[in-house]
């Protein structure tokens, strides 16, 4: 196991140490358009949490089908943090707590992949 300080992400020509929190969501198929919009709005609001260094949000990319590509999810986010403390602060932030309360009833699965 490596600490956050041991790994580096490359941004252009500079190397930056980051913790990457990647979350994939599979929404309930019977959600209305309004419920999906509520989910997207709550997910988008996470970008306002101050300890985030970078926030990326999207849907499956229209890349070529290959056996290793999984396009079955509906939305994903990648959140980059400068350290574990920033990540932990993000997890407890009221916007994140509100997202969990609003979002959990709307998804059938959420999968987290964290890396340092």
Strand order of the largest sheet: 4-5-3-6
What number of structural domains do the residues give?
A: 1
Seen as an oligomer or otherwise, the chain set is: single chain
CATH class: Alpha Beta
Q: Stretches where pLDDT falls below 50 for ≥5 residues?
A: 1-8
H/E topology pattern: EEEHEEHHE
Biggest sheet record: 4 strands, antiparallel
- Judged by helices, strands and strand pairing, the structural class is alpha+beta
Structural Rg: 15 Å
Determine the number of helices (DSSP H or I, runs of at least 4 residues). Answer: 3
Architecture, CATH level 2?
2-Layer Sandwich
Portion in strands = 25-35%
Termini distance? 9 Å
The helix fraction, in percent, is 25-40%
Overall pLDDT score: 89
- What is the CATH topology descriptor? Alpha-Beta Plaits
- SS elements, strand count: 6
Question: Descriptors for this entry?
Answer:
about 120 residues; alpha+beta; Alpha-Beta Plaits; 4-stranded antiparallel beta sheet; two-stranded antiparallel ribbon; 3 helices; globular; disordered N terminus
Please give the structural blueprint.
Elements: E1 9-11, E2 14-16, E3 19-27, H1 33-45, E4 54-58, E5 75-81, H2 84-92, H3 94-103, E6 107-115
Antiparallel strand pairs: 1-2, 3-5, 3-6, 4-5
Describe the model.
This protein has 3 helices and 6 strands; from the N terminus they run βββαββααβ. The chain is of the alpha+beta class and 116 residues long. It has a single domain, classed as Alpha-Beta Plaits, CATH 3.30.70. It has a 4-stranded antiparallel beta sheet. It is globular and about 35 Å long.
